[in-house]
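Incident review: delayed structure delivery

Summary: a single-chain prediction request sat in the queue longer than the usual turnaround. Root cause was a stuck worker, restarted by the on-call engineer. No data loss occurred. The affected request and its eventual output are reproduced below so the record is complete for anyone auditing the incident later.

Affected input:
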Amino acid sequence: MIARKRGSEMSYFVKKRKFTDMELRALEAVAPLETYRSTDDELFGTKVARRVGEHWPVNAEEVAQEFRKMTGSVVPASGIRGAVSFEEIREHQGLDCQLIRTELLVFNALPGLGKLPAGTRLKSASLKVQSYELLPLELDLPPVADWLSLDMAAVLTDDSQQKPIDIEITGLIKAQHEYVLLDQAAGAEP
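Output delivered after worker restart:
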């Protein structure tokens, strides 16, 4: 897939064919395309230059706001823990890149769960996010690859029955993306 931005308009292509509206809706259902206000630097960045091997905490307030914008879920910053680390510098696609690892834990909230039916409440929940991102040292270039793992678990209690019941929800999502910079890819322009 190739994403191209001209002005404020984004277009998506596969094998030089532009996505239809229906294809975009299907893609959006499994891989949201919308970007939100917070940048990676606001969520996971640092205000000072870091060296290989260093790590620092995520910005829990910004992560909580991002969850609200993305899912409508209220996730208190006090239930968010995480750290970012500068793992190494490695070559990828002919570019020197920083390998950045992020680990994020969210407790007692499950972003995206939505409104629960009457009589149902969230008893416990956890979300563990692990990601790696390859960021070119040339700061004006976008990421060239990322890997993501989301591991979630929740227990809901339904008090509307004569005897309360617990409902357990678990899920694991893994994704890997490779980005090719068009000016470096021969014939990649759609």
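Verification: The chain has two domains: 1-34, 36-115+125-150+169-184.
Action items: add queue-age alerting; document worker restart procedure.
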